[in-house]
Design goal:
- There is one protein chain.
- This protein has 278 residues and is an all-beta fold.
- Among the domains are: 91 residues, no CATH class; 77 residues, Thrombin, subunit H (Beta Barrel).
- It contains one helix and 29 strands.
- The strands form eight sheets. It has a six-stranded antiparallel β-sheet with strand order 6-5-4-3-28-29, with no helix packed on it. It has a four-stranded antiparallel β-sheet with strand order 12-13-14-15, with no helix packed on it.
- A hairpin with a 7-residue loop joins strand 20 and strand 21.
- The C terminus is likely disordered.
């Protein structure tokens, strides 16, 4: 028998509603992605109903495993538009399942901070919720977070604002999104942190660095992995976690897929099977 997953609505110990699916993929917030057969939809946990039917995205399978993956989250918490795939091209619908932005893009990402990254004719661009282009054409882009997005031009990274104005020049070899007012960037192959004014807050001395989460960040200083605070001071993560009653997620863009009895992590940029741990 095929393994099934159920979403139950229980009030005062009584099951009021029950929905059955072939697979689930968790998402922070009120939504959960659900799968029937090969296709995915969205279930609104707060409203206890399926708001988008399982008709978008054909589930992917890795050779040798029976796990189905949704290519990317269709919607992020607090966003109004939902990423969909139709006949190989990407567009956006609203929560009433009405097409708002035509499926014309070769690649696309879910809306983030009110903006979405789309790929067409060899370049990445940003669109707003009206489908209007903002900013220029870029080799690569990061999602908007805290009002800014990383963009790559001429093999270097910088940042633009929601008006498409470049506020941090393209001079970094690598970059990640802003979080808690700081962004990890690499200059001459060493990572450090800058603020929104393009000021170096933590010097370029790390082999790699992740964005801050709950006041701490994961880094490697060529001698080993560890955690730092916003002053660049090394801290004991276990002690910090207990004192602050918090959990630090090394990668903010991850979700757990639970399908066919197997579970794995999936970064928002695509399935990374090295992280799955099967």
């Amino acid at each position: 028998d095929t393994l099934k997953y159920k979403i139950l609505s229980i009030e005062n110990g009584i099951t009021m509603n029950e929905k059955e699916y072939d697979g689930l993929a968790t998402l922070d917030g009120k939504y959960i992605q659900v799968r029937q057969g090969e296709n995915w939809g969205i279930f609104d946990l707060s409203e206890n109903k399926e708001i988008i039917p399982c008709q978008y995205f054909h589930g992917e399978k890795q050779s040798g495993y029976s796990v189905h993956f949704c290519p990317d989250f269709m919607i992020k918490p607090n966003e109004e538009l939902i990423l969909v795939l139709n006949d190989g091209l990407w567009g956006y619908i609203n929560k009433s399942n009405n097409l708002v932005i035509d499926c014309i893009y070769e690649k696309a990402r879910p809306f983030s901070d009110g903006m979405a990254a789309v790929y067409q004719h060899f370049y990445w661009r940003f669109i707003n919720s009206d489908g209007e282009f903002v900013g220029g054409k870029y080799e690569e882009v990061l999602d908007f977070k805290e009002g800014m997005a990383g963009v790559k031009e001429f093999d270097k990274w910088g940042y633009i604002n929601k008006y498409g104005i470049q506020i941090i020049p393209s001079r970094f070899s690598e970059a990640k999104s802003f979080a808690e007012g700081l962004a990890p960037v690499a200059f001459k192959n060493k990572w450090g942190y800058i603020n929104e004014m393009n000021e170096t807050v933590i010097p370029f001395r790390y082999k790699w660095a992740y964005p801050f989460n709950d006041g701490i960040a994961s880094v490697n200083d060529y001698g080993g992995n560890g955690h730092i605070d916003k002053n660049g001071k090394w801290i004991d993560y276990e002690e910090y976690k207990q004192d602050n009653n918090t959990y630090h997620n090394y990668e903010a863009e991850r979700w757990d897929a639970l399908t066919d009895g197997m579970e794995g992590d999936y970064p928002g940029s695509g399935v990374d099977y090295d992280l799955l741990g099967f």
